[in-house]
Amino acid sequence: MKIATVLRNDDYSREVERELKEKLLGEDSPYCFVREEGETPDLVLSIGGDGTLLEAVHQYGFEPTYVGIHTGHLGFYADWRPNELDAFVQALKEQTKPFVAEYPTVSCRILTRDGRIIHKWALNELVIRNASLSTLVACVYINGDEFETFRGDGLIVSSPSGSTAYNKAVNGALVHPSIEAIQLSEIASINNQAYRTINSSLVLPKHHEVELIVMNPQIMIGLDREQAVWQDVCSITCRVGVDKVKFARYKRLTFWSRVRNSFITG
Ligand code: NAP
């Protein structure tokens, strides 16, 4: 089995990687670690936080399976703590066919005013904001029908697993990752006598799409960890992505227990 590691840039994560390699390698070991850039691993170990996992999936894409080892608190994408390395190695050796949880992504088609089409995707979310502090203005269409004109700080289109991230901070709903859906949430919309938005998050099923027609000449687009200022974006169309990110589950840790651990029991 070919394994790759992606690390948070700190000494603790590097130490955990060193320990793991020591436990996994050795005479007659069925494991080897990817050395060359461009090699496709079977399994990617993300050692760090949920942010590190986001980095890993954008580096290696949809082919490998992923396991997260969290060097801070237990995360949404990470199942293991550094003090459980022996149990993880044992599970890896014993369970040749672990349960694989497949998490939906957000697929985005960005159309520029000069007619270019750029395809992007996110595991957590797409965020759009005006590039300056003034209001973002975007017309929202659902399945080709006009829905509303949004004025405010920004819009988030999140996946189910991204629903616990930025989306939660703006009071979006938490969506179980087995539900193939995207969620459109508002960031500080203007709602008064002149302007009106729905002011609730919308959860759209797999066969629906949301189109955001952008009125500002420059906007900021965030896709998971990546963010950039874009000029002359005409529209962004989002739907549930065809590709899913695969997580190898060597132990049972439910989504709702992760929610409870992260937000209630602390
Ligand atoms: P960051 O600003 O350094 O960290 C954002 C926090 O979000 C970290 O604590 C991270 O967990 C956590 N996180 C990431 N994915 C999550 C998920 N699916 N569910 C629950 N929490 C999650 O940024 P980053 O580490 O590069 O992560 C990028 C993410 O930050 C974006 O995708 C966005 O969702 C989130 N973000 C949130 C807000 C907000 O809540 N107001 C604002 C901007 C961005 P770890 O500590 O385990 O890495």
Automatic annotation (TrEMBL):
<feature type="binding site">
    <location>
        <begin position="124"/>
        <end position="125"/>
    </location>
    <ligand>
        <name>NAD(+)</name>
    </ligand>
</feature>
<dbReference type="InterPro" id="IPR002504">
    <property type="entry name" value="NADK"/>
</dbReference>
<keyword id="KW-0418">Kinase</keyword>
<comment type="similarity">
    <text>Belongs to the NAD kinase family.</text>
</comment>
<dbReference type="InterPro" id="IPR016064">
    <property type="entry name" value="NAD/diacylglycerol_kinase_sf"/>
</dbReference>
<feature type="binding site">
    <location>
        <position position="151"/>
    </location>
    <ligand>
        <name>NAD(+)</name>
    </ligand>
</feature>
<dbReference type="GO" id="GO:0019674">
    <property type="term" value="P:NAD+ metabolic process"/>
</dbReference>
<feature type="binding site">
    <location>
        <position position="188"/>
    </location>
    <ligand>
        <name>NAD(+)</name>
    </ligand>
</feature>
<dbReference type="Pfam" id="PF01513">
    <property type="entry name" value="NAD_kinase"/>
</dbReference>
<comment type="function">
    <text>Involved in the regulation of the intracellular balance of NAD and NADP, and is a key enzyme in the biosynthesis of NADP. Catalyzes specifically the phosphorylation on 2'-hydroxyl of the adenosine moiety of NAD to yield NADP.</text>
</comment>
<dbReference type="GO" id="GO:0006741">
    <property type="term" value="P:NADP+ biosynthetic process"/>
</dbReference>
<dbReference type="GO" id="GO:0005524">
    <property type="term" value="F:ATP binding"/>
</dbReference>
<feature type="binding site">
    <location>
        <begin position="50"/>
        <end position="51"/>
    </location>
    <ligand>
        <name>NAD(+)</name>
    </ligand>
</feature>
<keyword id="KW-0520">NAD</keyword>
<keyword id="KW-0808">Transferase</keyword>
<dbReference type="InterPro" id="IPR017438">
    <property type="entry name" value="ATP-NAD_kinase_N"/>
</dbReference>
<dbReference type="InterPro" id="IPR017437">
    <property type="entry name" value="ATP-NAD_kinase_PpnK-typ_C"/>
</dbReference>
<protein>
    <recommendedName>
        <fullName>NAD kinase</fullName>
        <ecNumber>2.7.1.23</ecNumber>
    </recommendedName>
</protein>
<keyword id="KW-0067">ATP-binding</keyword>
<dbReference type="GO" id="GO:0051287">
    <property type="term" value="F:NAD binding"/>
</dbReference>
<keyword id="KW-0963">Cytoplasm</keyword>
<dbReference type="GO" id="GO:0046872">
    <property type="term" value="F:metal ion binding"/>
</dbReference>
<feature type="active site" description="Proton acceptor">
    <location>
        <position position="50"/>
    </location>
</feature>
<keyword id="KW-0521">NADP</keyword>
<feature type="binding site">
    <location>
        <position position="153"/>
    </location>
    <ligand>
        <name>NAD(+)</name>
    </ligand>
</feature>
<keyword id="KW-0547">Nucleotide-binding</keyword>
<dbReference type="GO" id="GO:0005737">
    <property type="term" value="C:cytoplasm"/>
</dbReference>
<dbReference type="GO" id="GO:0003951">
    <property type="term" value="F:NAD+ kinase activity"/>
</dbReference>
<dbReference type="Pfam" id="PF20143">
    <property type="entry name" value="NAD_kinase_C"/>
</dbReference>
